[in-house]
């Protein structure tokens, strides 16, 4: 569905040196899978997605979407994919059903057919009863579901979803996850960018982690956790301002039971195969943390190890 080799994207502003947002990446997305792009702000995710959507020209390397060249077949590609942007661009003056009808007509779909598709999509995203309501009266979760329904009106082979659940409450996120999972079951290829690591673990078959325009890791969520983290993570908290000063004693206490100890302002993270044994070693050494927690390693641990904990503006 997507084949990129040495893909690059540069921007040039008058009087300034060129800025390379995507610095030569290789990506393969297979039909019917859910593929994720993860990375901090400025990693190059959005620039990559815009090239895949055939709305931003490639600066270097090669890119094929559905076997087509976006430089010459952009219109054909855009007719066969769906796009769910990060910011809702729904027409608030129209009703829910009218938003789908008008958007479907942009693709040249006949009036009767677009009405049939709109009804089917509203049922799919559980908005049938709100078809006559104005968009401005919908909740945030409903608007996101409507945006996904709109992206499906042309019966696309692949849907690009940019931060699909940003700003939603947990209940709305899980409803949206269910709809996306059902799309995947129907054979639709999903390409997702997200800042939510649990979302990537839930939805993505494979993913890449991008940082500073490059791919720094690729694989399934489980394989990335196995490669870049440990089976468990023990979190231990000491008093205010005491975590950094306690790090050396904790490292000595856990010894070889831990792969590494990471110091954060509010806690220490002990990466170990057996988190309970690591916590017991801390107590056996006479140390007295005010709180402890043992959890399984997550994709977030991998993400922060690969991209760092420093904020990127």
From TrEMBL:
Q: Which InterPro entries match?
A: AAA+_ATPase, ABC_transporter-like_ATP-bd, ABC_transporter-like_CS, ABC_transporter_ATP-binding, P-loop_NTPase
Checking SMART domains in the record gives: AAA
- Where does the ABC transporter domain lie? 2-237
> Listed GO molecular functions?
ATP binding; ATP hydrolysis activity
Q: How does it sit in the membrane?
A: Peripheral membrane protein
Alphabetical keyword list = Antibiotic resistance, ATP-binding, Nucleotide-binding, Transport
GO terms in the biological process aspect are: response to antibiotic
What PROSITE patterns does the entry give? ABC_TRANSPORTER_1 (PS00211), ABC_TRANSPORTER_2 (PS50893)
GO CC terms: plasma membrane
Q: Where, per UniProt, does this protein localize?
A: Cell membrane
One Pfam entry for this protein is ABC_tran
- Fetch the PANTHER family from UniProt: ABC TRANSPORTER ATP-BINDING PROTEIN, ABC TRANSPORTER ATP-BINDING PROTEIN NATA
Can you tell me which family this protein belongs to?
Answer: Belongs to the ABC transporter superfamily.
Q: Indicate what this protein is called per its UniProt record.
A: ABC transporter ATP-binding protein
What is the species of this protein? Answer: Nocardioides mangrovicus
């Amino acid at each position: 569905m997507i084949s990129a080799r040495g893909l690059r994207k540069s921007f040039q502003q008058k009087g300034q040196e060129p800025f390379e947002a995507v610095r030569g990446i290789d990506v393969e997305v297979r039909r019917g899978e859910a593929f994720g792009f993860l990375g901090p702000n400025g990693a190059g995710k959005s620039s990559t997605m815009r090239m895949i959507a055939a709305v931003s020209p490639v600066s270097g390397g090669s890119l094929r979407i559905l076997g087509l060249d976006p430089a010459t077949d952009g219109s054909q590609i855009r007719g066969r994919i769906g796009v769910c942007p990060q910011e809702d661009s729904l027409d608030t003056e129209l009703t829910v059903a009218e938003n789908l009808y008008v958007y479907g007509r942009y693709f040249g779909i006949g009036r009767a057919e677009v009405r049939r598709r709109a009804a089917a999509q509203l049922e799919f995203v559980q908005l049938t009863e709100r078809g006559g309501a104005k968009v401005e009266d919908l909740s945030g979760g409903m608007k996101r579901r409507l945006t996904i329904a709109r992206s499906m009106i042309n019966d696309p082979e692949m849907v690009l979803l940019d931060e699909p659940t940003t700003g939603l409450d947990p209940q709305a996120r899980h409803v949206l996850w269910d709809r996306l999972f059902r799309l995947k079951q129907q054979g639709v290829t999903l390409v997702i960018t997200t800042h939510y690591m649990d979302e990537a673990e839930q939805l993505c078959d494979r993913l890449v982690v991008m940082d500073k325009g490059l791919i720094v890791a690729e694989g399934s969520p489980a394989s990335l956790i196995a490669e870049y983290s440990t089976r468990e993570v023990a979190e231990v908290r000491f008093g205010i301002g005491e975590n950094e000063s306690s790090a050396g004693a904790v490292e000595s206490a856990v010894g070889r039971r831990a792969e590494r100890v990471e110091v954060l302002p509010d806690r220490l993270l002990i990466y170990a195969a057996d988190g309970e044994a690591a916590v017991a070693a801390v107590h056996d050494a006479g140390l007295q943390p005010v709180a402890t927690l043992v959890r399984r390693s997550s994709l977030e641990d991998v993400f922060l190890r690969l991209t760092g904990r420093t904020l990127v503006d």
